[in-house]
Design a protein that fits this description.
This protein is mainly alpha-helical. Helix content is 70%, strand content 4%. The chain has one domain. It contains eight helices and four strands; from the N terminus they run ααααβββααααβ. Helix 2 packs across helix 3, helix 3 packs antiparallel against helix 4 and helix 3 crosses helix 5.
Amino acid sequence: MEKKRSKSLSYTSLYSLNYYNLFWVFVLMCIFGVLYETTLVFLRHQIIESRSGLIYGPFNPVYGVGGVLITALLMPLSKQRYLWILLPGMVIGGIFEYVCSFFQEKIFGTVSWNYQNNPLNLGNRTNLAYCFIWGLLGLFWVKVFYPKFAALIKKVPKKILKPLTIAMTVFMILNMLISFTAVYRQSERRKGIPASNFIMELIDKYYTDEFLSQIYTNAYPTE
């Protein structure tokens, strides 16, 4: 009885979806996304170009948020058979990719991917092949990688983990806020809308179209 209880407590602690675990999943997947896309572009075209989603650092928040969603929604299914993890992972990944593409186009007037030439696509925003990849990634993540990742986070002393997480959280919030504002302001400039306040004037001065084009190399205007 004592051994069973100990195992149960250990499992609960290891798979805990607390803020520390989810935040560092977000950071890890942000970096993974940049490395993955940079490598893919290099293999296809033999060039190295930016695939960052934020202005400062090698972070792509699309992958970060996707990683958090996959972790939070699939970990409760981690003891199920492979198929019952793969299929929800496909659905979650497909919906998430579609929503990201939709809002990028509506808010910023740009698109970063288009599957119009791929079979079984949904509104050119996602397709069955990439949904399957999302499902496979989710399956391997919850079955293999996340337990090891959670165990690693658990080993970090709280006196180090807590201030590091707070500092990184503040940095990521500011980074996302600046990046969002700069890209949104760029979409306004394309429409000929002048800067409405001092902050937007600073954005125009320091985050020019030329500067942003070096970071968001695959974000194409829809108009």
